[in-house]
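Dear colleagues,

As part of the handover before I leave the project, I'm documenting each prediction I ran so the next person doesn't have to rerun anything. This entry is a single chain, and its sequence is reproduced below.
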Amino acid sequence: MTEREEKFEKMLQAVQEQYAATVEKLAILKDQDKTKTATYRQLLGDKLMLQNILSLYRIYGLLD
């Protein structure tokens, strides 16, 4: 694997980890009925951004 491919893999892993952590934090806030807080809304925006990045990986065949 080339250095560039390793960097792509590292980025993919980081995005997937961030996405999972964000989804988990959103679930906790939702359980606490804090869906109208600034934190929840920021996390929701982060989740959408990370979903878009993962979608791009799928579109270009870099993710199953």
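The helical segments are 3-31, 38-59. The chain has one domain: 3-59.

All the best with the project,
I.
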